[in-house]
Structure formats: C-alpha cells, structure tokens
Amino acid sequence: MTTVESTRLIELTDSIRERVRRGESQARTAELVEDALSPFLSEPGLLREDQRRGDSSRYVQHVLHVEPDGGFSVVALVWLPGQETPVHDHVAWCVTGVYEGTETEQRYELRDADSHLVPVQEVTNERGSVCGFAPPGDIHLVRNSGTAKAISIHVYGADIGSLGTSVRRHYDLPVLS
After folding, report:
1. Does domain 4-162 have CATH number 2.60.120.10?
2. What percent of the chain has pLDDT over 90?
C-alpha cells in the first residue's frame, strides 16, 4: 500500500528529475529545482516521524531519495536549537527549503589569496522559504538560531548515497570584517 508520505515524496522527486534532466547550467538548475521544491514545503505528510527526529549532539541528515543515476539527492536535515554546520562549500548545486522552524545562513567570501573569510550576508530563512546556489561562491554556515527544532529539505546535485555528504571543503580560516 502506498502511503501519503511516499506518494508526495515520489511527486517531489519526479518534479525535480524533470528539471534536472533539462541539462541547464548548475545555477539555472538550482533555480528550476527551487520552483519544484517550494510547493512541497507546506505538505504536512511529506516526512515520516522518524525523518523528523533530531539528535542532541549534532544536526541529523535523513536521506530521502538518491536518484539512481546519481544526478541528485534529497535529504531532510533536522536541527535542534544552537546546532550548526562548519563553514563549508559544496561539490554541486544545492537548493534548501525550510520545512519547519527557522534557519540562519551566514555567507562568506574568500579574500586575499584565500587567506581569510569575510562575512558578506546573513539570511534568516523562515518556514516555506527556498534558496539555491551553485559553486563557486557558495561558502556558508547554517545554524538553528531559534528556540525550536528546525527541519529543512535539501536537494543536492550529487549522489549523497555514494559521497555521504555534499560538502566539498570545510574552511578553518580567520573571519575578518
């Protein structure tokens, strides 16, 4: 028997697949996938209860779908208050939609022959907001700066099943303003 969750997730991945197969640039693909993801962020049954669980020691990644040809992956990230990523960038385009709660993203640029980072923009993403980006220029840190759990749906232009992560590099550089 097909559940509501699996039916909606299948619809989401079908919509993403159609856009990814157009063969556009990474930046344009991210824009197209933003449009595909947006309507699903208000679907209360998109995630099963086990896919909504966090962990008090770190944010949790629940893999929802990996495209058989490795063209994209869909994951749910669950963040408890105060949890954050290291400063990082990605191996491919990425689209993020906030499903529950609020996330804060600090974006950075490398400066002076890659000797330090400069914060360039802080964005607060509320439930239902969608943003996408493609390398280069995708250096950021994401955190739950709220007081409640946050859940976001991430679509990566990479095979998370094989790679385990979409992160290309962590940046342990001084941050200067």
Report:
1. yes
2. 63
